[in-house]
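It would be a great kindness if you could assist me with a short task in structural biology. I am sending you one protein, given as its amino acid sequence and as whole-number tokens for its backbone shapes. I would ask you to consider whether the tokens describe a fold that such a sequence might reasonably adopt. The full record is reproduced below for your convenience.
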Amino acid sequence: MNELFKKEKETYYTIRGWKDMDSGLTVGFTTKNGGVSTNEFTSLNTGYHVGDEKQVVVQNRTIIANEIGAPLETWVGAEQTHRKSIVKVTKEMAGKGACDYESALKDTDGLYTNEKGVLLTLCYADCVPIYFFAPAHQYIGIVHAGWKGSVAGIAAEMIERFKGEGVPLEGIYGAIGPSICEKCYIVDDKVIREVNKVLEGKGKKPYNLIKDGQYHLNLQQLNKQIMLQAGLKHVQVTNLCTSCQAEDFFSYRRDGGKTGRLMSFIGWKEATGHHESK
């Protein structure tokens, strides 16, 4: 089976098949390569909150903006807090969190919209990026799900938001992106207790006991199970691991907490007439 995420350029991967459903869609996940940051942020760090120089991060984001054809002033970013707050983004919010951290949407780990001309963006360094796309109803969304956001049910919360907008479950496509894999991610009993609370008891558990009080947890599979429980019909999962693939990705765990941030992004280009022409 083909890997869900395809490397488009040195700087980012894209999701196979989604552009076929909507040619105006811009969607992807950045690598750590092709930027101007140095030291532990080498080189395409997209996070303002990790100690890198602000103007360097702006340069990195501008590189991505130019490559994907989505100007920085159309980006919307968030101050992520590992919870399940989701914001419906409007065009008036364009530029928030794009060129600084201070203007980012506060306490937000999920973004969705049905408006053209805004790029939804979130940052990661092992947590799970989850993408949502309803082509027939023209809704898109992304969430940031570490273990806390996962067990809080942020993925299911986004599905509820789409349903609340009149989007039927069968019309929503979900894609789970590059994040830390099971063998790289060890957690304790406290985390597993929370995981068990959100699973309905059916099917294989997304974790394995290593030794007393220690488990390998598969966050990607956990979120897939949560999305299926919420009724989603179309859920695809990457095989890419941010920790294993050191040549392409930053990893908080692998890099000892001092590292850059990767970025998920999704948006539609501003239409000119019926379809954008370039």
